[in-house]
Amino acid sequence: MDKFVFKINTKQHSENTQSDPVPSTSKVAEPEPIAIIEVDEELDEGVDEYFEKENKNENLKPNSEIARGVCLKRQKATRLIVGVLAPYFMKETIADIKENYFSIIIDETTELASQKSMVVIFRYWKEGKVTDRLLDLIEVHSATGESLFNTIKSIMDRNGIPYGKIIGFAADNASTMMRVWQGVQARLRELVPNIYIYAHAIHCTFVLQLLPRNCPNQLNSLLGIYSYFSHSSKRIAHLQECQIFSNEKPHKMLYPNQTRLLLEHWNSLRLFFQREALEDNLPSARAILNALNNQEYKIYFLFLSYVLELITKVNIELQSETPKLPIFLNRITTLYKTILKCFIKKTLIQKIETEYIDVNNPSNYVSLENVHVGAKLDALIKSGYLNLSLPVSNNFRQRALDFYVEFCNQVKQIFKFNDPYLKYASNFTPDFIWRCDVNC
């Protein structure tokens, strides 16, 4: 990790610098300081402690005489950061926010100790670029929309930040953030009616609604496959033998939730755990084997491997760090139509504009047996290879249909397909401009 030198200007330090300058014989160019901070005389004594002349930091900056004279240990560094640097940068950030229009980005999290915290970031334009600044990380006792809004309001009131300069608000798509009437965004709209609201990711917690009631318990067994192999070279070698016997390319489980490799090696894993259950008779091996023998769970894994790839593509577009404004509308519309084609009648998609298709109207759906769940899985079900009964197959497709509907509703809540600015920006793609030149 790179180490940086913090240069601090105090009145006493300035006098010492003038009376005892760096010898002129030094030919080393000093690095630019990260921060120059002016503090009052009452802090001089504490600050000078950080610059005791102890030559113990030979590896800090071997080409710098001044840096080798700096001694910063844990207690001193903590006092420097908390007592001097943090207040300075906080004051600088608040001054920048007051002078510029800004957006607020927040996220709430619960730690392992059940302590709720909320991070508050301000985004604004400074020196020709977009700047993000962390203003506060504050403990919250309640995660309701009202409580989180009051926390934001108290931070702005305490620092004298004007509400009139808020232009945007971004958060995840949780109900406490984006609820129409009681969410944080609704309360911010009461203060700033023209604020732009952006939910920056699709929450995938509704994936659990797709699974059968007892499936999560069996999933825990399947996710235990990684730990079963993680510390045993003997088991890994036996697994590779089973993979070769099953005509599969040898792989090992690199991390716990590696769904793709689990699907690719389903047969070899089942063969391996059959031997483990017979020879060692371990409860963990028997539990994993029972889950692998259940074809119903396999179809849900196959479906998730198909649909989660689409969700990931949508999230990548929504969270892109590169400018994509001219092609943004087209990219999201294409991905959204891909989902619609899985359960909406083809004639409706061809005749009606994307934003006007009602995904909650059952009369717009294809028949249950025609709900698309991925080419590979569709072929396996129709061929009878999985030996699924008709009730199990219909129940799975119904759950997949419900999943598609919920996913589309979340996309429409986040993205406005009829946004006039996005439609106007689409005119500036190279394709469109080239066509206009040809036509003209």
Automatic annotation (TrEMBL):
SUPFAM superfamilies: Ribonuclease H-like. Residues 8-30 are annotated as: Disordered. InterPro entries: DUF4371, RNaseH-like_sf. Residues 84-179 form the DUF4371 domain. Residues 9-27 have a biased composition (Polar residues). It comes from the Eukaryota. PANTHER family: BED-TYPE DOMAIN-CONTAINING PROTEIN, HAT FAMILY DIMERISATION DOMAINCONTAINING PROTEIN-RELATED. This is DUF4371 domain-containing protein. It comes from Phaedon cochleariae (Mustard beetle).
